[in-house]
From TrEMBL, chain A:
Record GO terms (molecular function): ATP binding
Name of the featured protein: ABC transporter ATP-binding protein
Native organism: Lysinibacillus piscis
InterPro entries: AAA+_ATPase (IPR003593), ABC_transporter-like_ATP-bd (IPR003439), ABC_transporter-like_CS (IPR017871), DrrA1/2-like_C (IPR025302), P-loop_NTPase (IPR027417)
Pfam families: ABC_tran, DrrA1-3_C
Keywords: ATP-binding, Nucleotide-binding, Transport
Ranges where the ABC transporter domain occurs: 2-233
TM annotation in the entry: none
SUPFAM superfamilies tied to this protein: P-loop containing nucleoside triphosphate hydrolases
TrEMBL record, chain B:
Domain ABC transmembrane type-2 intervals: 136-364
Presence of keyword Metal-binding: no
Keyword Protein biosynthesis part of the UniProt annotation: no
Transmembrane residue ranges: 12-32, 174-194, 215-241, 247-271, 283-302, 343-361
Membrane topology: Multi-pass membrane protein
Main location: membrane
Organism lineage: Bacteria, Bacillati, Bacillota, Bacilli, Bacillales
One Pfam family matching this protein: ABC2_membrane_3
Family annotation (InterPro entries): ABC-2_transporter_component (IPR051449), ABC2_TM (IPR013525), ABC2_TM_bact-type (IPR047817)
UniProt name for this protein: ABC transmembrane type-2 domain-containing protein
Cellular localization per UniProt: Cell membrane
Keywords: Cell membrane, Membrane, Transmembrane, Transmembrane helix, Transport
Family named by the database record: Belongs to the ABC-2 integral membrane protein family.
Length: 310, 367
């Protein structure tokens, strides 16, 4: 297990990461979410042993890795957000190079390259210089390079940025497969909520250098689950109906748009006994209604705010 | 070794820049070397008899560093007027006239030489006239024999104003342009570090099982070797295929270049540490390289520079020390102890800049 304990990183007077605690157990996928400037990249850089924290510790199997990072480096793979490959070299040459810097013996490396190429679906393109690859192929190779030394833990920093839906789907499936088949634990950061929702068992949400929410998907969503949003579709607009609806104390945030009305009610409130008698009184035909549960994105925006970030 | 091997593989995949810069060094060194006259041209016009003129020209040609060509009087005047020559000499039977451009510094010495030639000839004529016509041929042959086997050997040396210095335009251009242009080759090598730090490759290397110092050493060795191979290639081309005299110091010059190259690698590392992007790094290296070349004497010998400010500024240019060592092991034939000062300075600059460069680079990651 990798544990991050009270991790803090200050750049001059700015605390980029402030007292962060997180952990990842073998075989799980953990999402790390946060708006730009939240401190995700700095946290990842520290966990990857690229930069030293100002305070706090990183433990691997209960042992600090700050002074002796090699133990963590041996079991950790990092997929950077940028395409960190030599564009002039072929996929094979890139894999050979990055495999050899992990000091994988030649014969083993050959086998690993074959396996990795299969995992990332680039067996047919291995002799082509990377500069001639599509964005998706580069992303896949970028992941493949991090898998060569069979890491038990993998950090993936926005691995699907700027690629087509097919490649994105392929990468997500590869990540799932990797986790299931090789039992690789993955820290996954992304701005795509649906990816995190699809892949991750647990989620950390960061903002302004701190972890502001943590838990399973359900637990995170439960933050906003005290209310639900109801959307009614009426046959026609009726002002007296709306006015009477407004007078009902249990409804909040009522919004009217022609024949559509939406409002919030407490999670366990039965709204139909309130709405249906009103419809009957005003002779309104209720064509449909829709109950909306909060999404991860709703929670994220609720926690981090809707204001634009730099 | 893996990193080093990959760097050379990358160079082989994209050799264009390297080849072009090598060609540019050769081209400029050749053109500049050929373009600069080794000897200063002097126009000569004569109203004397052909034989006497030829004899005087022969005397004049004994003077080093001046190249005499015979013209008509009108043409000689025109050449001075156009600034193509600094001096025109008009030879007459028993006198001579000089037409001198204002910036010609050696008028007095030239005058002395001409006066000596005329005095000798007049003495010889007077000596012959002192004998009867019948014996003049015999006396002339005794005088000629005495001239061929003189009691004292007279050597013409160090014809120039102020301090004399040895100058070979071809060699100077070769050394100057090589030292200047190799800065760009070295910069290109260090730019790999800047680029890799930005695109994440550097981080991949750091989180691998290779140690950080190994990553630095591999990159710096590659940078050094790419520059060194280029210099060896250029020197070999000029030594074996172009008529450039290394004055017996060809191998020594290949060794003498090492401290300079180390210094430039360190300088490039320092610049890389204070610039964040490849674009800024390249711009900074260009801004630094050109003044260094001009101040360091890559284009022209510092010995002809009279400005005290320029001469004072020349001490900040590693090219000055690089040239000093290269000239020391070739044309100047200096003792090794005389080269210790520029050698030590280059090594000192290299150590200081490399130390600061790597430290600043690492600090930037942490801060």
């Amino acid at each position: 297990m990798i544990e991050v304990v009270n991790l803090t990183k200050s750049f001059k007077k700015v605390k980029a990461v402030n007292d962060v605690n997180l952990y990842i157990e073998p075989g799980e996928i953990v999402g790390l979410l946060g708006p730009n400037g939240a401190g995700k990249s700095t946290t990842i850089a520290m966990v990857s042993t690229l930069i030293q924290p100002t305070a706090g510790d990183i433990l691997l199997q209960q042992k600090s890795v700050l002074q002796h990072p090699i133990a963590l480096r041996n079991v950790l793979g990092v997929v950077p957000q940028d395409i960190a490959l030599y564009e002039e070299l072929t996929a094979q040459e890139n894999l050979e190079f990055f495999g050899s810097i992990h000091k994988i013996p030649k014969r083993k490396l050959k086998e690993r390259i074959e396996t990795v190429l299969q995992q990332i679906g680039l067996q047919q393109e291995l002799k082509k210089p990377v500069k001639h690859y599509s964005g998706g192929m580069k992303r896949r190779l970028n992941i493949g390079v991090a898998l060569l030394h069979e890491p038990q833990y993998l950090i993936m920093d926005e691995p699907t940025v700027g690629i087509d839906p097919q490649s994105r789907n392929y990468i997500l499936e590869t990540v799932k497969k990797l986790n299931k088949e090789a039992n690789t634990a993955i820290i996954y950061t992304s701005h795509y909520m649906e990816e995190v929702e699809y892949l991750c068992d647990r989620i950390y949400i960061m903002d302004k250098g701190q972890i502001i929410a943590t838990g399973t998907k359900e637990e995170i969503k439960a933050i906003l689950s005290s209310e639900k949003t109801i959307e009614l579709k009426l046959e026609k607009h009726s002002k007296p109906f709306v006015e009477e609806l407004l007078q009902q104390g249990v409804l909040s945030n009522i919004q009217v748009k022609e024949s559509h009305i939406s409002f919030n009610v407490a999670k366990h409130t039965d709204f139909l006994p309130i709405v249906l008698p009103l419809c009957e009184t005003h002779g309104i035909v209720l064509k449909s209604f829709h109950v909306q549960e909060p999404t991860l994105e709703d929670v994220f925006l609720h926690l981090t705010g809707r204001a634009l970030r730099n | 070794m893996t990193i080093l091997k990959t760097k050379f593989l990358l160079l082989l995949r994209r050799p264009g820049g390297y080849i072009v810069s090598t060609i540019i060094i050769c081209l400029f060194a050749y053109l500049m070397g050929a373009g600069q006259q080794g000897k200063q041209p002097i126009a000569v016009a004569s109203t004397m008899k052909e034989e006497a003129t030829a004899q005087t020209m022969e005397e004049l040609r004994k003077l080093a560093d001046l190249d005499y060509t015979l013209y008509t009087e009108q043409k000689a005047r025109q050449l001075v007027k156009d600034g193509q020559v600094d001096v025109a000499i008009f030879l007459q039977e028993d006198a001579y006239h000089l037409l001198v451009a204002v910036d010609f510094m050696d008028t007095r010495i030239l005058q002395n030489e001409l006066t000596a030639i005329y005095a000798n000839r007049l003495n010889e004529t007077a000596l012959l006239d002192a004998f009867p016509k019948a014996r003049q041929a015999e006396v002339a042959s005794i005088v000629a024999h005495a001239k061929e086997t003189p009691a004292f050997a007279i050597q013409y040396k160090g014809f120039g104003h102020e301090e004399a210095f040895k100058y070979d335009s071809k060699l100077h251009s070769l050394f100057g342009f090589t030292l200047f242009m190799v800065i760009y080759t070295v910069a290109n090598g260090v730019n790999h570090i800047v680029m890799e730090r930005r695109n994440g490759i550097w981080n991949r290397l750091i989180v691998s099982r290779i140690k950080k110092w190994e990553v630095y050493v591999a990159n710096l060795v590659y940078t050094f070797l790419s520059g060194y191979f280029q210099i060896v290639l250029v020197f070999c081309i000029f030594y074996f295929f172009v008529d450039v005299n290394f004055y017996g110091g060809f191998v020594a010059s290949l060794l003498a270049i090492i401290p300079y190259l180390l210094c430039i690698v360190a300088l490039a590392m320092f610049v890389a540490s204070i610039t964040n992007t490849p674009g800024k790094f390249n711009a900074a290296m260009t801004v630094i390289a050109v003044p260094f070349a001009m101040l360091g004497g890559a284009y022209w010998p510092l010995e002809v520079v009279s400005s005290k400010i320029i001469l004072a500024l020349s001490y900040i240019s590693p090219i000055k020390y690089g040239l000093e060592i290269l000239k020391g092991v070739t044309i100047d034939e200096s003792a090794y102890t005389a080269l210790l000062q520029p050698f030590s300075l280059l090594v000192f600059i290299a150590v200081v800049l490399m130390g600061i460069g790597i430290n600043v680079m690492e600090k930037k990651v942490e801060n």
